């Protein structure tokens, strides 16, 4: 059974810092991995999707890496801003089956 | 790009009433849709898999008689919370994979508050 964990559970940083969020999964037979952002009371916003054959994806200040063999993914946020404050979820897609979500990392970027 | 919609986005109801939530794939057909719920300060958890033309499959601990799922067409799945109680208050979200299975799209979610 796939299990997804995320560390840290919560993170508070001053504005401008670069930061890394970590995601681990137990079953490396994944189809893809996706990072989401969730604002309080809102739905999910997809940030980056990494297919199983890819090593990383970049979008603006965000960079996500994937190491299937070790069951790890990281989300790197450069030059953090207060507007980045949200909960970040990673989820793995087990070959078109349902997503398995991690518990999330609550990020606070202080001005 | 492909879009999944949910309706309503927010609903407040009295205890004992039933609430129907719709999930639609707007520009692609989805033979399968997934329903998740998220309790406060917890992650999203799969509730059930909705299959067009057949019965839904439910995750352990999810009451199938309480959470009725109907996959009426290739673009519509509905989740009905029957006789809702305050403990059913949650954020419900659906997702639908494309037929090719390349990716999944998530609906915007429905926030249910049962008084």
Short summary:
The complex is a heterodimer of chains A (111) and B (115). Helix content of chain A is 0%, strand content 58%. Chain A is mainly β.
List keywords for this structure.
A: 111 residues, mainly beta, six-stranded mixed β-sheet, five-stranded antiparallel β-sheet, B: 115 residues, seven-stranded mixed β-sheet, four-stranded antiparallel β-sheet, globular
Helix tally of chain A equals 0
| Global structural class of chain B | mainly beta
Cα-atom radius of gyration of chain A: 13 Å
SSE order of chain A:
EEEEEEEEEEE
Q: What spatial form of chain A do the alpha-carbon principal axes imply?
A: globular
Largest sheet of chain B: 7 strands, mixed
Radius of gyration of chain B: 13 Å
Number of helices of chain B: 0
Characterization of this structure:
The complex is a heterodimer of chains A (111) and B (115). Chain A contains no helices and 11 strands. Chain A is mostly beta strands. In chain A, the strands form 2 sheets. In chain A, strands 2, 4, 5, 9, 10 and 11 form a 6-stranded mixed sheet that branches. Chain A has a 5-stranded antiparallel sheet with strand order 1-3-8-7-6, with no helix packed on it. Chain B has 115 residues and is mainly beta. Chain B is globular and about 40 Å long. The termini of chain B are far apart. The model of chain B has no long low-confidence stretch (mean pLDDT 89). The A-B interface holds A 31-32, 36, 41-44, 46, 49, 89, 91, 93, 95-96, 98-104 and B 32, 34, 36, 42-46, 49, 93, 95, 97, 101, 103-104, 106-109, 111.
């Amino acid at each position: 059974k796939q299990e997804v964990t995320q560390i840290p559970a919560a993170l508070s940083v001053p504005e401008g810092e670069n930061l890394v969020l970590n995601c681990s999964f137990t079953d490396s037979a994944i189809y893809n991995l996706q990072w989401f952002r969730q604002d309080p009371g809102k739905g999910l916003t997809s940030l980056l999707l990494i297919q199983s054959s890819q090593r990383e994806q970049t979008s603006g200040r965000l960079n996500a890496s994937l190491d299937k063999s070790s069951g790890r993914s990281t989300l790197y946020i450069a030059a953090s801003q207060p507007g980045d404050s949200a909960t970040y979820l990673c989820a793995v897609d087990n070959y078109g089956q349902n997503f398995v979500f991690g518990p999330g990392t609550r990020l606070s970027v202080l001005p | 790009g492909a879009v999944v919609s949910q309706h309503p986005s927010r609903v407040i109801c009295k205890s004992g009433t039933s609430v129907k939530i719709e999930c639609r794939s707007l520009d692609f057909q989805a033979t399968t849709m997934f329903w998740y719920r998220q309790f406060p300060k917890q992650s999203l958890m799969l509730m059930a898999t909705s299959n067009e033309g057949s019965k839904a499959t439910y995750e352990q601990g999810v009451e199938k008689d309480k959470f009725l799922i109907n996959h009426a067409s290739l673009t519509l799945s509905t989740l009905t919370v029957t006789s809702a109680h305050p403990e059913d208050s949650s954020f419900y979200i659906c997702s639908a994979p494309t037929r090719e299975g390349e990716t999944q799209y998530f609906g915007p979610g429905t926030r249910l508050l049962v008084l």
